[in-house]
Design goal:
Elements lengths: L1 E8 L10 H13 L4 E3 L4 E4 L2 H16 L5 E8 L7 H16 L2
Antiparallel strand pairs: 1-3, 1-4, 2-3
Length: 103
């Protein structure tokens, strides 16, 4: 199963609105989980089952909550039990289809 999510603080002490130092707290928790993960400019994706991933998302939210009085979580999940390697597999299948369109 894939879980893509964004965790952000409601406030930031930085004049320019930067949240990188606060978001880094969440990403650090996720990376230390040992689960397959990938962070892009807007979301982090983690692969695993409910019981593995949800405590990691909660801990990441709590890490942000330590420095912000309010935390926002946006979560999207692809619930497909029994499938693994989908973080890269889905992209590979789409790329293969694009190659077919262009050949």
């Amino acid at each position: 199963m894939l879980f893509s999510f964004s965790i952000s603080p409601a406030t930031t002490p930085h004049e320019d609105g930067s949240m990188a130092d606060i978001v880094a707290r969440a990403v650090d928790v996720i990376r230390k989980s040992g689960l397959p993960n990938e962070t892009s400019s807007m979301f982090t994706t983690v692969e695993g089952d409910w019981d593995e991933v949800m405590p990691v998302i909660k801990a990441a939210c709590e890490a942000v909550g330590e420095v912000s009085p309010r935390v926002s979580l946006v979560l999207k999940a692809d619930l497909r039990p029994g499938h693994t390697g989908e973080m890269t597999g889905k992209v590979e299948r789409v790329n293969a289809q694009i190659d077919q369109l262009n050949s």
